[in-house]
User: Which sequence fits this backbone?
């Protein structure tokens, strides 16, 4: 197994931050470990970026980022859906990633803080994200809505794109997806281990998200299994990692979108691993992957 520059160091630290089997620990502790990635591998936040927290339901809502020094009128909005297997993540884990998206693109960013499983299993998170999309689509400030998502956030992004096509609201202009997981059914009984993402961990995420009540091959859980989802689709960029067991989903989505006559670009970066956005400050290859991720929406 040949890793890209800096990734071996990233994995060494990752094995300390979130040791193998961490998902057997208490839930609050799991989330604390996941948030520690942002402390060990921080991304500098530009002073030009300011944010406001908007609450929709109790503690759930979105963080609205603005580039206060932007010289052009802001008419584009990016909805960012964070990863974490629908169990982990939020402002603590993705605050600086979303802020850099804002600083680099010059667009407004809404980092969606959606309800997490297992307390809030499917379809609560997806329904909440659909509500946020509807709010965004009715906001007269924006004449373009784009979507970004990493890992399970990529799953939400794809579902929101499908919803936008079916609705009478503003359609999604573009999607940018970083290592999306689009087939949860593949992991319902575990599967292949990969660096920083074990089959047992994926099985745990499936059980938390479905709560044993919904089949993981449901169209809104594993959209890649359903051909009808991709006949018409927004322009899409797929970023996958060569040493990621989830790269299969990106290749399959690329095939389905091309077969449907849609505009799609897929870049697989050799030597990268799942969830390696935070390696960008120590790995030029990871930095290039992240650059492609946000540039597509600029």
Assistant:
């Amino acid at each position: 197994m040949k890793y890209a520059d800096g990734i071996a160091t990233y994995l060494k630290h990752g094995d300390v931050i979130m040791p193998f089997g961490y998902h057997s620990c208490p839930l609050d502790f799991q989330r604390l470990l996941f948030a520690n990635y942002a402390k060990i591998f921080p991304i500098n936040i530009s002073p030009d970026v300011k944010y406001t927290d908007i609450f929709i339901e109790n503690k759930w809502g979105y963080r609205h980022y603005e580039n206060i020094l932007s010289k052009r009128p802001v008419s584009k909005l990016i909805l960012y859906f964070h990863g974490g297997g629908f169990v982990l993540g939020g402002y603590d884990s993705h605050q600086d990633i979303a802020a850099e998206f804002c600083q680099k693109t010059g667009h407004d960013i809404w980092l969606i803080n959606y309800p997490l499983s297992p307390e809030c299993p499917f379809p609560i998170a997806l329904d909440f994200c659909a509500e946020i999309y509807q709010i965004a689509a009715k906001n007269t400030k924006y004449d373009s809505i784009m979507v970004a998502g990493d890992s399970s956030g990529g799953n939400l992004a794809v579902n929101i794109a499908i919803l936008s096509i079916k609705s009478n609201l503003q359609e999604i202009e573009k999607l940018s997806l970083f290592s999306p997981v689009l087939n949860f059914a593949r992991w319902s009984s575990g599967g292949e281990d990969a660096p920083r993402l074990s089959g047992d961990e994926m099985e745990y995420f499936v059980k938390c998200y479905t709560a044993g009540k919904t089949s993981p091959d449901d169209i809104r859980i594993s959209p890649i299994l359903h051909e009808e989802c991709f006949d018409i689709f927004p322009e899409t960029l797929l970023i996958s990692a060569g040493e990621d067991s989830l790269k299969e989903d990106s290749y399959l989505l690329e095939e389905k979108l091309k077969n449907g006559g849609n505009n799609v670009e897929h870049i697989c970066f050799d030597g990268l691993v799942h969830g390696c956005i935070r390696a960008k400050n120590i790995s030029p290859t990871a930095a290039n992957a992240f650059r492609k991720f946000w540039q597509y929406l600029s």
Q: What stands out?
A: Residues 182 and 249 are 6 Å apart (CA to CA).
